[in-house]
Amino acid sequence: MAKRYLILEDGSAYAGEGFGAGATTSGEVITNLSLLGYQEIITNQIYHNQILIFSQPAIGNVGINHDSYESILPTAKGMVVRDVTNISTNRLSRLSLDEFLQQHNIPGISGIDTRHLIRKLRHMDGPVKGSIVDVADAHAFDQLNATVLTNRQVDQVATPKPYPNPDTGKNVVVIDFGLKHGILRQLSERRCNVTVLPWTASAQDVLNLDPDGVLLSTGPGSPLDLGEGVLEMIRTIQAEIPLFAIGLGHELFALANGASLRPLPVEYHGSSHPIRRIITNDIIYAAQGQGYAVDDKTIDRDRLITTYVDLINGTVQGLRHRDYPAFSVQFFTDGAPGPHESRDLFDEFMEAMTAREG
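Now predict its structure.
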């Protein structure tokens, strides 16, 4: 493997061994603390244009399989790991991680002290730009500093046209902001007849399909960049049809109902995160990919109820509307990768659609 470098905009450089594609890329540097599920993570569209640092020291040991894709074409900009292996005894494996990254022109770099790097990033202000390069010279740093990170991530990953995921059950419209396939799998397990619409769809576009329910998907970037049109669509739909929102959809649901958002000092991406379900006071564990939080002080208590709270940083993790069958969660409910403890929220969505029929 050739020697390559991860460089950061503060002028630091980390030498390692390249794997995957030999491309030179730049993007926002993000850490992920999950122990499992690197395939689901690297194919999750919330990591569009981002370089992923994995805290798990050994990556690649289960290969790549057909069942763990969260998108067809991953758009992450790179992987940074301590150790990478291309030897897998997993019977489901069809490709090595190295082969997979080469297919999608995504570079990787191993041999990095990821613990030190993660600690460093936690003390840096705001998003941090980085590049994976062959030579860490002045030209590479000039190129990195000149890079402008896009705020049009949803435009670049969401479907531009409607498409079906047919079945024979309830009619569900999914608004695609950067859809995880795990959401479609959970709806398919419940025999839902799904139509996926682009994020620019109007309320009338949704109502024309006569759905039993509407789901707002996860997605990358800031919800503040998506404009008033999306919020108006949500306000109209929640008054007519059961609505379930996840991740970026949760943040948009909060904005549409008068709450404000604040960026987290350090983004959290990982699994097995403890979250309290307020109504029962029990604890669930879930996967997260969170850069923004709903400001608890701005929630209109005449409209919204807080349903879930993060036990580590106290942030709002779930909301429910007082007047309409509409609810949302910040964390990933599809369990791809796990934990699977919050999949019952899809059953709750199904119950809301059934109750509407009655």
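The longest strand covers residues 261-277.
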